[in-house]
Each structure stands twice: as C-alpha cells, then as structure tokens.
Amino acid sequence: MHRHLTIILFLILTSLPLSAQPKYEIRATWLTTLGGMDWPTTKANGKEDIRRQKQELIDILDRLQAAHFNTVLFQVRVRGSVIYRSNIETWSECLTGHVGKDPGYDPLAFAIEECHKRNMELHGWFVTIPCGNDRQVRSLGKKSVARNHRFICKHYKGAWFLDPGNPMAKEYLSSLVTEVVRNYDIDGVHFDYIRYPENSKFPDNDTFKRLGKGKNLAQWRRDNITEIIRKLYKDVKAIKPWVKVSSSPVGKYQDLKRYSSHGWNALNAVYQDAQQWMREGIQDALFPMLYFKDNNFYPFALDWKENSHGRWIVPGLGIYFLTEQNWPLEEIIRQVHFIRDVKLDGEAYFRNKFLLDNTKQLLDEIQECIYVTPALVPPMTWIDDKAPSTPGNGSIKNQDNGQMLNWSASVDNSDQPVVYHLYGSNTYPVDINDVKNLIETNLKTTNYLYQPVQPWLRKRYLCVTAADRYGNESAPLELNKSGKNDLPILNNGDSLTLPEEAEVKYVSVTTASGIEVIRYIYEQTLDIQSIKKGFYMVRFIYSNGKDSLIGTILK
User: Fold this and answer.
1) What's the pLDDT tens digit per position in 45-76?
2) What does the DSSP assignment read for 62-76?
3) What phi, psi does 322 have (nearest 5°)?
4) Structural contact between residues 207 and 151, judged by C-beta atoms closer than 8 angstroms
5) Which residue among 82, 290, 301, 403 has its CA within the 20 to 30 Å range from the CA of 250?
C-alpha cells in the first residue's frame, strides 16, 4: 500500500505545470570526445582541418549559450589518452585519427577560452579507472599506462583497468588531475567510472591479500574508491580551492525502503559509497547517472537530495533513451519539473549530440519553456562564503548604438579576479533575486554596451553585482536611480491610464523614433488592444497645437 501511494504521489506531482525559473541552477551537458561521438567529427591533420575542428566546437558552444546552459562537462581523458598537452599520457586518436599525434593546437585550452567567452564553466571530465580495451592498449603501445605501469593495472574481460586497491593507482590518477588543475584555468574536474566493473570477479585477490587488513572484500573495495576520491579532492583544493570537484556515480545508491532498485546500484554492485563522500565533504557535487524513467527515477533522485549534506546534487538525465528506447519527451520534462520542485541543484544531459540534434524537439522545449532566462551556478559557500565588495562609480552614457555602462572594479578576499552580473528592471530598485531581471552573467570587464535586441526590451533601471570564483555575489550597485523626471509607464496590459489634465485634445502614440502609430481623442482611460507589442512614447496634444511627452507604453 505504501508503495502504491508513493507512485500516485509522484504521478500527481509530475503532472503539474513546469516550475518557475530558478536564479541558481546548474545546467550541464556531457560533451563526449571518445570516438568523436559529440566532438570532433573533423580530424585535425592540417591548418584547414584545425580551423574546421575548432569551428565545430564554436558552433556547439554557441548553441549551448543560446539555450542558457552554464556548464560543459568536457571529456579530457578518454581511455588512457587525453586531449590536452600532457607529460603523463599521450594524445587521443579522436583528435587526428592517430594515437599520440599532436593536433597542432591545445583543444582543452581552446575549449576553456571559448566557454569563458560565452560565460559558461568548463569542467574537465576524466574517465578514471578504465585504461582501454585490448585494441586501445595495443594502439597506445609504449605510451599505454598498462604497459608503462603494469603493476598498478589489472586485465579483466578484454580490457585494462587501474587497480583501485593499489596505493600507487591513486597517486597516478592524482598526477593526471593535478597536472590539468595546475596548467589550465579550469572551473571543475569531474570523475566518471570511478568504480569497479559492475558485479565483477575483478582479479585483485593478490592486492586484497596484501592490503585487505582484515576487512571483507566489499568494504575494502568501497574504502579503496573512497580513498581515491578523498585524495583527488584534497589535492585539487590544495592547488586551486575554487575548482569544483564532482563525480558521476551510478544513479541508484542502494535499495530504498520506499522503493526497490531492482538491479545494480552504486554501493553493492560497483563499490561506490557516494553518500559517504558527501557526509565526509570530499565532493562538491554529484551527478548521479539517473538514466531511468517513471518511478525508477523519482524515489532515487529524492534519496540523493535527502543525503546531500549541503553539497550539490545534479541528476544526470538519460536523454539518449529518447531515441534508443523511444521515451516520450514528456518523461524528461517531468524529470526537470521534479528536480526543480524538490530543489535539487540542476540537471545534466547525457549526451550532447542528443541535445543539440533536438531529439523529439527537446532543445526547442528547453529554449522556449525550461531555460527561458539565464541562471547562475550556485555559490560554493562551504569553501568560501565571503562576497566581494560592491562595485562603485556607476554611470550610463547614451550612444547611438545603445547605452555604455561603466563601473569601478570590485575586490575579493581571494587573489582571483571577480566577474560581474548585470540586472535590469522597469521598477526601482532592481530586484536581483528575480531571475527575470538577470540580463548578462559573468562579465569580465567593468564596462558593457547595453543593446537590447528590440527597443521595447530595454529596461529603465540597471544594476550590477560582483561575484567571486566561488559564486558569492556582492550587493548591487544601482547604475541609475528613480527621479522626478523619469517617464512613467502608463499602461497595464491593454489599459492605458492617463493623468487628468485640462486643454488636452488628442493623445498621440509614437515609436521611439517619433513616428506616430495611432491618435486618440483624449480620455483618461483608453483601450490600446489594437497596438502591437513594443515600446512606445505617449504625447498630449493640446488645443493650442502644442504637445508634451508624458510617458511610455510597454506591451
């Protein structure tokens, strides 16, 4: 009976309209480089190839920016090879079609630069324990970790893996991860397949006999994975504490009293004690791979929420099942609704091709209904909760092509530069907690040319805040203020309410450039339903022929 009530509750909850847009929401996509599945399709074997390969990535990031994504989980380590300049592992074949061949540029540096231009974070996605199948290891030859560090690897079912029980394996992984953290302006590191092969007879008996220290095999394996997570977290934070550290555990932690998992789970099948990682505070975020539908999704998403211990939970959504298992689009929409309703911290989509291919119109739905406004990555307050100073000396200068906004720099308690968020509203003061007022995020400079796409979208009042690399946001600096000379907005929808004034004969409604669109005989209340959406000026025309500007219309 309890189970049936749970199912009914979830069905009712997920049939409601989509929740309001949150100001803070991680909006992520997994961008796979393995085999060029998401990128690249062009191989870089010459200058023109490099240009095309770069342009492919630019096009992808442009589309993600247009859809208001703010985080890219970018695969940097594939199977024992990488897509950045490394002194430890060699170049992946996905870049040139040839293992170990330099593509002629640094794809990771390029991707970070392009993400930051678009106000998006880039998190380096590492495939951790697997080192490649037999073919991949053969192709890597002398550059393979399975050959160079044979004693920390195990062969299992036609593939090679690091042995998580060998202490040198975690040292090797740390060397890979910290190399990237030191050398690149990366926003996060993200660990995939940081687990044992599922339900396996993994050949680690020799390591267990030597280092098991009286534990049972299952607990020893869990502790091995947790020790790797602990070391990677501490080593990253020691170098750059603002770099976010996350992983993608199996979507179901374990069986629940409210609902059974009916299959493999993180704790028992692959030895990921991921909820312990959160209790211990050795992850900033988890992206559990909740690639399930119906009530195989909701109870387990809620379980992660209930055991988050103040860190972020960002469910991974299996959008590839829209094609592979013919899921209806409504399944993904309901999952996003649920994530927002129970106040999880965002969502991630696996994988990027299915997103940008607009599978079953998913991207259309995201742009038109789900991610209508920008959103900020939440602040990482458990590392640093001190906001930077408020910017100063704000000014607005009108220009032919827009308004030039200027302010003086903010300072933070860290040695890192701040970024700026711009807000605008037609009411004063600007409410920075209302996400509809968020115009632009993560500006790098202390000036901005404000150019709304249409004149009627221009906001009357503007303000700017500063944010540090941990996401802490300052109090706002109002760039302009309400004054007695402000032109009021006179309409409420299709009703135009005018001040009472003698000697007024007509009411003239013009475009911002002065072209009259309609003229009314003066009445104090007018119906303006016939006027198209837009921004207009309202003038009184008096009996003596003179006129005066008295306000505006915004429809």
Assistant:
1) 999 999 999 999 999 999 999 999 999 999 99
2) HHHHHTT--EEEEEE
3) -60, -30
4) no
5) 82
Nearest to residue 274, comparing CAs of 297, 296, 257, 250? Answer: 250
**pLDDT tens-digit readout, 196-224:** 998 779 999 999 999 999 999 999 999 99
How far apart are the C-alpha atoms of 360 and 380, rounded to whole Å? 35
* N-term to C-term CA, the chain: 52
Q: ∠ at Cα 311 (309, 314), nearest 5°?
A: 120
Q: How many CB atoms lie within 10 A of CB 492?
A: 8
Cis peptide before 164 (omega within 30 of 0): no
Please report the DSSP string for 160-193 in residue order. Answer: EEE-TTSHHHHHHHHHHHHHHHHHS--SEEEEES
Check: CB of residue 429 under 8 Å from CB of residue 478.
Answer: yes
- Distance CA(34)–CA(82), nearest Å, equals 10
Statement: residue 8 has pLDDT above 70 = no
Give the separation between CA 461 and CA 202, rounded to whole angstroms. Answer: 63
Between CA 340 and CA 253 the distance in angstroms is 21
HEC string for 243-281: CEEEECCECCCCCCCCCCCCCCCHHHHCCCCHHHHHHHC
Q: What's the pLDDT score for residue 12? A: 41
Mean pLDDT computed over 280-309? 97
**pLDDT tier at 9, thresholds 50, 70, 90:** very low
Q: Is 134 helix (H, G, I), strand (E, B) or coil?
A: helix
Instruction: From residue 254, give the alpha-carbon distance in Å to each of 3, 193, 226, 270, 309.
Output: 17, 17, 16, 11, 17
Residues belonging to the chain? 555
Q: Helix 298-306 crosses helix 2-13 at what angle (to 10 degrees)? A: 90
Q: Residue 87: what pLDDT?
A: 97
| E strand map for 362-452 | 392-399, 402-408, 419-425, 438-443, 447-450
- Higher pLDDT pick, 452 / 26: 26
Tokens of 14: 């997920």
Say whether the peptide bond before residue 340 is cis (omega within 30 degrees of 0).
Answer: no
pLDDT for 479 beyond 90? yes
pLDDT at residue number 283: 98
Mean pLDDT of 480-502: 81
Tell me the angle at which helices 47-66 and 107-117 cross, rounded to the nearest 10 degrees: 30
pTM attached to this predicted model: 0.87
